[in-house]
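Q: What structure does this chain adopt?
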Amino acid sequence: MASRRLALNLAQGLRGRAGGLSVPVRRGLATPHSPALKTQTTTLKNGLTVATQYSPYAQTSTVGMWIDAGSRAETDETNGTAHFLEHLAFKGTSKRTQQQLELEIENMGAHLNAYTSRENTVYFARALNEDVPQCVDILQDILQNSKLEESAIERERDVILRESEEVEKQLEEVVFDHLHATAYQQQPLGRTILGPRENIRDITRTELTNYIKNNYTADRMVLVGAGGVPHEQLVEMADKYFAGLPSKSPESAAYLLSKRKADFIGSDVRIRDDTIPTANIAIAVEGVSWNDPDYFTALVTQAIVGNYDKALGNAPHQGSKLSGIVHKNDLATSYMSFSTSYSDTGLWGIYMVTDNLANVDDLVHFSLREWTRLCSSVTPAEVERAKAQLKASILLSLDGTSAVAEDIGRQIVNTGRRMSPGEIERVIDAITDKDIMEFANKKIWDQDIAISAVGSIEGLFDYSRIRADMSRNL
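A:
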């Protein structure tokens, strides 16, 4: 049920039908023309935003609530509360028992799910168009009337503790949690989403209800619809079911702290465990926020560095200069460049896995040498390749109503507006090799880095040696 990243298991939406009897027989294979789909938004009196992308020929819809509150809105003592609440949302309300809730969803053939990230909590449902009103009723019920019974809390406590144990076995998750913890030390953004085990064991119903009261307010929530639900219909449902939401969050200490600009701290954390056969290393500089003018430039720069996986058949031909060096010298099992954004900061970097333990220092050196190359010698050809890959990735990720709803909700919650795919494409097309080099000189050249390393990492040089590679002249 829970997902620890802002990434959904996007399902394929059903395609719309052609225009039936009104279409002449000689054009039976044609589909009706429709104008470009637009995102419509309406703000209710209490501040709740309703946003939709209506597709008149879609037979299914995704509706959901995107909330500007995740683990960042917690305190050290309550860390894990947002994720705990996500688990309890489906365990019964004052109107529906857990069994009634499950049967209602099952009888519609709908799908109800939720996830928590560092800055957002999301509850959403996928269903046939005619079942959308019932899904919105269920969503409002679990958001406003969850019973949070002590028996359910105790059952989910054990479930979350087991989930925490499973997460600790996933090295990528562990490395990225430690990367956040060291880059944003003693700050809300540095906490994990699940929270420490002692918190999971101690969270009470009082803390759960307080989190809802302090964070589930209309000014921080966006009701999203994508597919065959008309905008006016969803606005009517929102006015019916959510008009009673508090309009503004109380400015508690936790709220004020969550809105304070996060400070990136150059530092490292290392967990050496020689029983792990690989070295798992993440290195990052401070990246860009969702609203940063360089947001898409950062993504194109990330695409230039690229990804690599030795197990893939096209491993020798994955496009980027770094992947060629890594493959030729067998330096890594895989690597993944990333650009992770938050409301006021971000992490831009690379995550590497290698079983060539004698050459860990070479892997890090060549990776950082590629970073510094971006500051001075990027070619137009590799920029065009990266732009094409990025545009394709964005468009392919919008296949299905759930994916579209996710895009709408994420953009509006984080930036206040949704850029259309066409607008995004135009912004990316305008990026040049000069823009990439300016971005690299500003955000990469001679900048502090955060390092997280787990496993057989004896060969990883000390922080000062790695930091010195950030200003290497080629």
